[in-house]
């Protein structure tokens, strides 16, 4: 059975092959298999949902990291007045941006055409709308002019839709609701340049979760407290940058000099290093469990 022909693989084996691709770190192939699963019809299981999320996050994550490195080099060369080098670097950066746009649009199409329309549970709805917000935000990171404005508006709308559902159907300590608040606040800080709004959103989510921490289930405790730590780290970073003291209880030292951002899942959020500039929790393992299954 050729791995290059996903359509010929039975559904029962697609998720197995996707896990195999994950172990081999062949994320482009992992995306191919999980996109087939997503487009087959019906709501994805929690396991399938997380595999899809892991696949896309890794595919886009490597390109986001490449874009940051190349952009930094371009700025340094520009400051040296190396016009020839800047021209070459600019062309290469645009190549990476084209790849980023293709990947982001691909996952957004899957979300809009297959996943969001079929989502039935509140957890699924929040997960997918949050994911939609994330990928529009990734587009806004490198876009400029009207394209950036369009991407930012779409991201805000998706995050707002996710928040509306989360506030009525998920508890304040739910890992997906906390991850949403974390990423939404990063969006306000980095894309909309609104630190006050970012801090307010992050602090509100943290305080609401603290108030209900005693009722947190054992299976969700690790996931939720990890994301709460990231919220607190961001508040510490953002408020210290403004010369103010964070108002959350027991402030901790930030793990990085850039804010932390939650990805589609929660488990493993503290495993591995953050991947700037949104200093997200790691691209891979943390997405393997989007809250209690």
From TrEMBL:
It holds the Pfam family 14-3-3. InterPro entries: 14-3-3 (IPR000308), 14-3-3_CS (IPR023409), 14-3-3_dom_sf (IPR036815), 14-3-3_domain (IPR023410). Residues 262-279 have a biased composition (Low complexity). Residues 239-252 have a biased composition (Polar residues). Residues 14-253 form the 14-3-3 domain. PROSITE patterns: 1433_1. Residues 239-293 are annotated as: Disordered. Transmembrane segments: none annotated. Belongs to the 14-3-3 family. It comes from the Eukaryota. Gene3D superfamilies: 14-3-3 domain. This is 3 protein epsilon. It comes from Ajellomyces capsulatus (strain H143) (Darling's disease fungus).
